[in-house]
Design goal:
Largest sheet: 2 strands, antiparallel
Distance between the termini: 55 Å
Oligomer: single chain
Structural class: mainly alpha
Number of domains: 1
Shape: globular
Strand order of the largest sheet: 1-2
Radius of gyration: 21 Å
Order of helices and strands: HHHHHHHEEHHHHHH
Helix content: over 70%
Number of strands: 2
Strand content: under 5%
Length: 364
């Protein structure tokens, strides 16, 4: 299986000059980047289609974001694992974890909110610039607020997973899904909080299951797939997305009775892709895009608004579509440079503050 996977991933070696050389990295890192690449490509395509043609498709981009919630949980599990190994002091470990998440998320968010204000005229509050997990940021930036909510809960989820094991943990996640579904179908709207996919805390359910994926995959006695599993779950996931499109289905959004099925389909697809047999078409370029999906998400509509102001993006214009497609590689390169610069600067800041903190503790 490994030789087949490496042969399918070989095009990624051509992308080293752009920072996307995955040679020597784990297969799962390439797969998770690939899944993020597919998801962000779908988000951009749906938003641009909505802006250029019909708004009956752009809302479904919110459902594609489910992949990011789940894969974020997957990555955060390893982040906490590594921090616990390195630092026994719980307080210092938690402080380092939350600080690393803040410097990863917030600087690019600040730039995006400022640019969006300039290009669209929207006004954002100081609380919005903090990531505001209590009152989600307007427009597409609600995603950042929801991710920060997941980060806040992550250490508790990690401890629970470690103590009860992935089987009992998964049962608890499914039980919570059942409770939120019951609240939704009985129209108890007064109990609904932070809805995602018509379910209260639906994003946290996805994130929670994503944290369990590493332990599920490592349990080879319980986890087995074949070459048909991942494509089957992918088709199932796509069909549910298609049924959420008002342009195709007779409803304005995904019906609430399909919401649990949708969350399960996303989870099953990502689990089978990460842990099973896979051959990834166009893996090099898609995985590279996925590596910088956060900045692409933050800036892709700002890019569209700028083109609109310049008279390049016009509704129902074939020429506009061609120009946007031709300009997308330049946009992606700018996102790549911006995210690499932000990550590098934040890494240096974290290293400097770590040295200062150690000296202060040594003095005291």
């Amino acid at each position: 299986m490994k030789s087949e996977t490496i042969r399918c991933l070989s095009p990624s070696s051509l992308l080293g000059l752009l920072g996307g050389d995955f040679a020597g990295q784990s297969d799962t890192l390439v797969v998770t980047s690939y899944l993020k690449g597919l998801a962000i490509a779908a988000v951009v395509a749906l938003h641009y289609t909505g802006a250029l043609f019909t708004d009956k498709v752009s809302g479904s981009a919110n459902l594609v974001v489910s992949v990011f919630f789940l894969l974020s949980g997957y990555g955060i599990f390893y982040s906490l694992e590594n921090r616990v190994r390195r630092q026994r002091a719980t307080g210092r470990m938690l402080l380092g974890f939350y600080a690393s998440r803040a410097v990863r998320v917030l600087p690019l968010l600040w730039v995006a909110l400022l640019l969006d204000s300039l290009t669209s005229g929207r006004v954002y509050t100081p609380a919005d610039f903090s990531g505001n997990p209590v009152f989600p940021i307007p427009f597409i930036y609600w995603f950042v607020s929801y991710v920060i909510q997941c980060y806040i809960a992550a250490p508790v989820l990690w401890v629970l997973l470690k103590r009860v094991g992935w089987r009992r943990y998964s049962v608890l996640v499914l039980a919570f899904l059942a409770v939120t579904y019951a609240i939704s179908v009985t129209s108890l709207d007064r109990f609904a909080v932070y809805e995602y996919a018509h379910l209260s805390l639906g994003h946290l359910i996805l994130f929670s299951f994503g944290m369990a994926i590493p332990t599920i995959v490592s349990d080879r006695k319980a986890f087995r797939t074949d070459k048909y599993t991942t494509p089957m779950f992918f088709v199932f996931f796509v069909l549910l997305l298609v049924f959420s499109l008002p342009a195709v289905a007779p409803w304005s959004s995904l019906p609430v009775y399909l919401a649990p099925l949708f969350l399960v389909s996303v989870s099953a697809f990502c689990l089978s892709a990460i842990g099973g047999n896979r051959c990834l078409p166009l893996s090099g370029i898609i995985a590279l895009v996925g590596t910088y999906s956060y900045s692409v998400y933050l800036f892709h509509l700002i890019f569209y608004f700028a083109l609109q102001r310049a008279g390049i993006a016009e509704r129902e214009s074939f020429a506009s579509i061609i120009l946007i497609v031709l300009l997308l590689p330049i946009f992606f390169f700018v996102c790549l440079v911006a995210e690499k610069a932000s990550t590098s600067a934040c890494d240096r800041l974290m290293a400097w503050t770590g040295r200062v903190f150690r000296r202060l503790t040594e003095v005291t």
